[in-house]
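ingest -> fold -> write
write: protein_1
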Amino acid sequence: MEFQFDLSHIAHDQIIKIDNSLLPVGYQKDDPELQMMISNVLDKMGIASGIAQELKSPITSAEKLMRSDHILYLMTEQTSPGHFVVVGLLKMGWKKLYLFNKKGSRTEAMVYCLLDFYIHETRQRHGYGIKLMDYMLKDNQIEARQLAVDQPTNKLLQFLWKYFNLSKLVNQGNNFVIFEEFFEDPSDKESANDNRSSGYKSQPTFGRHGAARQQDCMANILYGAKPAEIQNGNGNANKVEHQQRENVQHKEERHVEVQHHVEVQQQQQHSMDEGDGQKSNHTHPKLDLKNFHTQL
């Protein structure tokens, strides 16, 4: 949008930051003429923005800016020496909002809000919008996902999706729109990607942790176990085989011992009967072999 007056004395940079004094931020002196010039620019750009968004009345004007603590970023372009045109505007401000996340939980917070965003039709689709937005984000050291947007148009939503990958809206029950990424914490992402258990399992073993464990099986003590067999995975098979052999040998020894004990008792009884010269008619009780092992 072109104007009849010269902006060269304030448009040192392409983007001018204006506060409620209707003067560039950091401007050191009172300048009523400059204030009138900026007031004229804001009113006309505000009307053009309202028409583009199909609003009943403009949401940006010099009077509204003076009665607020909002900041307005005004983008200009020099078309020829001493001649500037206004390309677009971006109005921002802090507001206390009740926010609802996607689970329905409500929180109260001070949020930096995008209140008005407009690029003149003659300059659209030339990269001016993303340049103006990036300037504002860097100036406030904030990310686009942390913004609340006041009554965004479909064109603005497409812009945020295209350049910032923001598309999942969270309904707030008012005119403001936020995205799911608003509630994300960078530390949560790091913790989510940190799989400590898998990292622990993947750690190599060195020193005493990597050494083979001592084989203390009784079969290995009696019969020995070859280290090579243990390392090749045959230690378990040999261990079972030695254990079975040991069990068989133990059973045979117990059987021989029981038989010998029975024979000794029978011989003693027989010698006692002969010494008395009488044959006993009493039948001796049978030896309970089942419980014999408890008596040894």
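write: protein_2
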Amino acid sequence: MNRIYQPTTPKKTRSSSGRLSSDSSRERIIQSPYFSPTKGRTPAKYDASDVEEATFYRLRSFDKSNEYKNPVKASYECGRATGRDFGDYRSEMSRLTSHLGTLKPILIQEQVADDPWKLLVAVTLLNKTAGKLAIPVFHDIIKRWPTPFDLSQADDKELAALIHRLGTYNIRSKRLIAISKAYVQEPPSLYDIRSSNKTSTHRRCSRFFTPPSNGHCKYPGTPVSHYPGTGPYALDSYRIFSSVRDEPDSEEWMTVMPSDKELILFLKWKWAFIKGMEWSSMKGAVGAITEKYLSSLIAELEKNNVTTS
């Protein structure tokens, strides 16, 4: 015969302290150590901008694989940390990024990147000279002497007269002729990398190159390092623009740490728009872009309105 068990209510007993307790251990309520009561606790108040800054300060460090944090994940964490809706945050970031794309600095180096000789001629004229003065002269020179051989045979007095309004016209005319002669005799080749005699202070050395003990690092070799007058500005311009033209998958531009303000602004734009990263001319890529950084960069681009073409 089967017994039928009826549910019973455990009896309550009063302890010596006067509290009621169950006579069954199964009825004891155990507070988990992983949860704490929220009653009576007041949530801390944070300023959204402070939380955003703190969040991305943490994200700017390298992870174990030496890769930067994912910008999408970073923006999600930032939106969550600031208490904003993720969709709204991403929508604003998308709007800012689209606007950033319309503000790309237009530099003559990029337009002539497929012809290293023209790039060298352009940077020789642009060195310590405003683009609005140098670029028209560049087009006049190319129209008068369209090839390296033509310019190598140019009369230095005629050339000096053409660039007279740029200043240091005697030095520049002789340098342009010397560059063209060397270019004809030894054209650049990707298979013939020439070492550079130029150096850079430690603070502008790329993190991909180890500086010597004297605090200076040597510029990496390029196919144009052997031409007369190829200083830091010329080498940086070649590495940023022509290296990409020669090798579409090249990441050479990511290792350049220029001192020229227009090249710096271009790299800030390219790092932000192409890679989604914040970039500094002293530290390189330092973390994922934020809404605050994009707004600041857009304001800087609109103020400078770099157009040297």
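write: annotation protein_2
The radius of gyration is 32 Å.
Strands lie at 12-14, 20-22, 106-107, 199-201, 216-218, 277-280, 284-288, 307-308.
pipeline exit 0
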